[in-house]
Amino acid sequence: MRRTAIRGGLVITATEEIEADVLVEDDAIAAIAAPGVARDWTADAVLDATGHYVIPGGVDAHTHMEMPFGGTYAADTFETGTRAAAWGGTTTIIDFAIQPVGRTLREGVEAWHARADDNCAIDYGFHGILSDVGDGVLKEMDALVAEGITSFKMFMAYPGVFYSDDGQILRAMQQAADNGALIMMHAENGIAIDVLVRQALDAGHTDPVYHGRVRHPLLEAEATHRAIQLSKVAGSPLYVVHVSATEAVAEITRARHEGFTVFGETCPQYLFLTVDELAAPGFEGAKYVCSTPLRPAEHQASLWRALRTDDLSVVSTDHCPFCFADQKELGRDDFSKIPNGIPGVENRLDLLHDAVVAGRISRRRWVELVSTSPARMFGLHPRKGTIAPGADADIVIYDPGFEQVLSAETHHMNVDYNAYEGRKITGRVRTVLSRGEVILHDGEYHGRPGRGRFLRRESCGYLS
Ligand SMILES: NC(=O)NCCC(=O)O
Ligand SMILES: [Zn+2]
Ligand SMILES: [Zn+2]
């Protein structure tokens, strides 16, 4: 048995902050004890965490490695994307296995296993994407839940691609109410948006900024409202992904106050970037094309407030990188052809820690938003998302005082720009353990493709 002691740090979980030492035996946490008590531990390796935080590894519940979109593929493979995640302190990702239109869900899951299984440096799970709901797919959902794929994303946007109509959504929600799955919703009224896209292009408006203008906040709010009503009718829980608009937050808040099991997720891009980025000179704005879109700055106050009140419960990245040079370029003459997505899997913990430094959220809330809540919500807690005896030893030693500047020059994501280029951040990941193995320490990466394991997730973690 291999024993590693992490000594002298401040252990922070969603519920506690204690000065304690942590003992890791093989791949799991064996004990946490006050430094005096822990003095007698024998260990093969000691990691000095003096002056540092000791937190559970990040759980990013929303990534798109190698996702096909708009005639190209997201630029990070599972190999490059999970390596970048590890550099940023994330030790678990949950990616989306897409059902090809007209094919089975199973085919999508097998394709994602083929991409991920020998390539991930950290542990990983899958959600399913339902792009063609019918009788067969509903049955397949049951089988996948039994195999640990316990959540399914649906799209009210992108007609002709991933779009589901209200009847398909209701049927999938009814199935989820029966089988314990969680429906995740991309809530934008895609039919109305497509009308506005056509009108903008007909008027000669082809620049990236029009991506933001046609995806009106009220069309996010309307779809969010509709998804909530459908979930109430079906009696299923609902998780709304990448919430960006004040009006959509209000819909989630109201449903929660009425006692419905509705959750919301937002992403760093909506907290730290605005629609002004989309309006950058020339074609630069294409770097910031994602859906839901970046919003005017006033929406950020609602998002931060909802993160504090738990009306938004999770911060994921929606990491979906497309290179500026040759992929975003596909939409140079037509904003609707710009592949949608922003890179960020490496930057989430640091950006949110910077919000701790700025006094926006507490340290414990930071840990909860980036690790504990997503682990709970998606059936991984307490194996992931906490520091407790018996949990997987996915641990980050975090230097809260280190000053860094985010840049494509230094990041590890396989994409030629960083959405936060030049931003000064206080805090940096110093050491990362994944199931007890040190995969990053003092700027040296020791991970390897294929060491990450597929996670069969429990259902209904969000109800406990
Ligand atoms: N969000 C985005 O722009 N791209 C990824 C696909 C999605 O999550 O809708
Ligand atoms: Zn989406
Ligand atoms: Zn996404």
Automatic annotation (TrEMBL):
Family assignment from sequence similarity: Belongs to the metallo-dependent hydrolases superfamily. Hydantoinase/dihydropyrimidinase family.
Cofactor(s) the record lists = Zn(2+)
What keywords is this UniProt entry annotated with? Hydrolase, Metal-binding
GO CC, sorted alphabetically, is: cytosol
Amidohydrolase-related domain residues are 53-438
Q: What name goes with this protein?
A: Dihydropyrimidinase
Q: Which residues form the signal peptide?
A: none
User: Superkingdom of this entry's organism?
Assistant: Bacteria
InterPro entries annotated for this entry? Answer: Amidohydro-rel, Hydantoinase/dihydroPyrase, Metal-dep_hydrolase_composite, Metal_Hydrolase, Metallo-dep_Hydrolases_sf
Q: How is it modified after translation?
A: Carbamylation allows a single lysine to coordinate two divalent metal cations.
> Organism, per UniProt?
Saccharopolyspora aridisoli
Give this protein's Gene Ontology molecular function annotations.
dihydropyrimidinase activity; metal ion binding
**Modified residue annotations for N6-carboxylysine:** 153
Enzyme nomenclature, EC number: 3.5.2.2
